[in-house]
Amino acid sequence: MYVNLGKKIRFNSVQILALGFFSLILVGGFLLSLPIASNSGQSTSIVDSLFIATSAVCVTGLIVVDTATHWNYFGQTVIIILIQIGGLGFMSFTTLLAILIGKKITLKERLLLQESMNTFSIQGLVKLIRYILIFTFAVEGLGALLLSTQFIPLFGVSKGIYYSIWHSISAFCNAGFDLMGTYSGKYSSLTAFANNPVVIYTISALIIIGGLGFTVWSEVYNYKERKKFSLHSKVVLTVTGVLIIGGTILMLFLEYKNPLTIGNMPLFEKFNNAFFAAVTPRTAGMNTISTSDMTLGGQFLTIILMFIGGSPGSTAGGLKTATFGVLMITLISIIRGREDIEVFKRRISKDTVYKAFALFVLSLLLVIVVTMLLCITQQGVPDGDKFNYLLYEASSAYGTVGLTLGLTQHLNTAGKIIIMITMYLGRVGPMTVLLALTNRMSKKSGIKYPEDKILIG
User: Fold this and answer.
1) Sign for the pseudo-dihedral over CA of 268, 270, 271, 276
2) What is the reported pTM?
3) 349: pLDDT confidence band, cut at 50, 70 and 90?
């Protein structure tokens, strides 16, 4: 087979997005491997550096070295920049740079932005990007201001401000990274703030806002003018509300008497922490109660929430609320005997239903395969807890959540590579990666075969 080196290689929008995230991971991994990035002044292994870079770009939060103690300010700043770019998408930052230098945004770049932001059309796309960037920095700034009221008295002025900005960005981008010293005892993720409603609700608000999607927030912002929401926003807001309220009630019920989590807390604190435990799996990865000490029911509920994830066009990963909503609406329509898939007096196209089903099957297969591979390669987990720990880890990586039962830091090289690939697929999307690898976009066939029947059920 011969390759014509003189021929210009062409990539479609899906391939460019997949390669863009991959390139960002490589750059971040290289910077984190440098001696100037670690507190010890020594190089970090390339596997660990790439793992952290992948986790940051894919806004996950799974870590193999402690963020607070292993990295110095340079390393921590590299990580938070990777989180910010990964959360908003590298195309958004490319557009920002182009706007700053006065460069005109071409049609090809607008099509890339449409794919990156998961919007319906390219009309008003550059204006939307401007709104997204302003909105993001404004929300992150407000979050940092609220967090600073708690962090400055605790850590001092300079460190308190740095921590406030850092955690505000991490929460809004739905990343599970923190600087509280995951393995250092007193500060383990946000467990030291389990009785602090300001931190709990500020972080929760940032997670929810970042996970709703920029298209939804654009419609919320312009609601006074339009006086209506699109079907997409209605479905996203409804599913998000059901998951948060339902998740809080179930988590409160499952953990109410557990003395290792919320069992010994006053009622108000129980509610606060149950609420946070329902919000953070979609898909932020911070925790105020010990995940490994949760009841089996609480851990399984967390796995379900991690798998569903956030909303399309947001900083979150997972199956996505809109996809889950379409699947549930389809199920309800079938049970009610409806020929069309209907909700809010609107009909959902069959193409949308097919895509939602395909994403669900691909996502489920991915989690199953990753769990099986981890079962084969990871031998250090006690047999009694092995499946639960590995399924939890696989779901967290796919949903780009960052929650763990304590397995991540014990992964061997094979396990780290498996989780890195899973985080990448979870952030970019299994369907996107599949299309990028096969170079096939959807197309209509001119052939229609005779219809036949298959027995179902």
Assistant:
1) positive
2) 0.86
3) confident
